[in-house]
Design a protein that fits this description.
34% helix; 39% strand; Aminopeptidase; acyltransferase; Bact_Acetyltransf; 5 helices; alpha+beta; seven-stranded mixed β-sheet; 158 residues
């Protein structure tokens, strides 16, 4: 298995992985959401990384410059925000997510980045385990997305 920065030709495969993972966890995305994700992958400052096994994309990661005010403010020098990490259901538990995060960490550090951050659901034990194993730690910050859905921030200094 290899990881690499995605090319625009990889975006459809990355969206397919994202979609398959969401369907598998009982959250099939609506068409408008699929379109928004596809657009985010194509943004000029997006960092899209894919994992490839046997010639097929089996994992995807989307990151972007971190911003103040929880994404609503100005860019924060050195901060990179991880928007999503998804692995095809048939490849989950095989280290794909860890490889994607390692590639991002190396890439961002080479660009002079100093910190990665990610928000994940308080009840998403699988994602939290992934981030902890990759060296991330809870920042202590939480937020309420919607009634009953709390998210937690994890960070790592590079």
């Amino acid at each position: 298995m290899t990881t690499r920065l995605a090319k625009s030709a990889d975006h459809d495969d990355a969206v397919a992985v994202w979609r398959a993972a969401n369907v598998a966890r009982g959250r099939p995305p609506e068409a408008a959401r699929v379109d928004r994700v596809r657009a985010k992958l194509g943004e000029p400052d997006a960092i899209v990384i894919v994992a490839v096994a046997s010639g097929r994309v089996c994992g995807m990661l989307l990151a972007e410059p971190g911003r103040d005010l929880d994404g609503r403010g100005a860019r924060v020098d050195g901060l990179c925000h991880i928007s999503m990490v998804f692995v095809h259901p048939g490849r989950q538990g095989q280290g794909v997510g860890r490889l994607l995060l390692e590639r991002l960490r190396t890439h961002v550090a080479a660009l002079g980045g100093t910190r990665l951050q990610v928000w994940t659901g308080s009840g998403n034990e699988r994602a939290q385990r992934l981030y902890r194993r990759a060296g991330f730690a809870p920042s202590g910050r939480t937020a309420l997305l919607e009634p009953g859905r709390t998210i937690e921030q994890f960070v790592i200094d590079l």
